[in-house]
Design a protein that fits this description.
Blueprint (H helix, E strand, L loop, with lengths): L1 E5 L2 H14 L5 E5 L6 H11 L14 E4 L5 E5 L6 H6 L2 H5 L4 E5 L12 E8 L6 E8 L1 H17 L3 E3 L2
Parallel strand pairs: 2-5, 2-6, 4-5
Antiparallel strand pairs: 1-7, 1-8, 3-4, 6-7
Bound molecules: adenosine-5'-triphosphate and magnesium ion (MG).
The site of adenosine-5'-triphosphate has 19 residues, from helix 1 and helix 2.
Length: about 160
Amino acid sequence: MVMIHTSSPEETLHLGQLLAALLKAGDVVCLCGDLGAGKTLLTKGIAAGLGVTEDVTSPTFTVLQVYEANPPIYHFDLYRLEHADELMDIGFDEFVSGSGIAIIEWADKFSDFMPEEYLRIEIMHGATPETRTIQVQPQGNRYESLVEELKKIAGSCFRNVNTGF
Ligand SMILES: Nc1ncnc2c1ncn2[C@@H]1O[C@H](COP(=O)(O)OP(=O)(O)OP(=O)(O)O)[C@@H](O)[C@H]1O
Ligand SMILES: [Mg+2]
């Protein structure tokens, strides 16, 4: 895994843009972290990196927002969902195994329903209001190689990157 410390919203946005360059069709990104951690901001960075120009916000009430990009982005927010049945109702499995990039806020709420392999990103508040610790953890071979790539590029973009574990 890799741990990256950002010290402003812009840096987290930038990390999202770097991630966009590494993601490909069919990938799944599970985002975890408290309210206001920066899950949507990171998603915004990924979307911007893939050429999305419209505003990206938490799809808290709609649960899913699709952004037409190449590949398309399926942005989920599971915060308000209470039952796994609701996941099925919105066709969660079809999207997640589909040909776009699925980005899932509050994925930890339904961890049993996540696919076998995914990129898990946990964002934690830091000591000051604008600092965050972002832990990027691969689940499966595909994402292990993605994290290796990220280590190479993140090291030159962020002052504070810890690798290993
Ligand atoms: N280093 C940082 N990285 C990310 N966000 C930061 C940082 N510093 C401050 N912020 C602020 O924290 C907030 C993060 O909001 P965001 O909507 O991305 O959180 P979220 O995790 O999606 O929350 P929610 O669970 O409510 O959807 C923004 O207002 C952003 O400006
Ligand atoms: Mg959000």
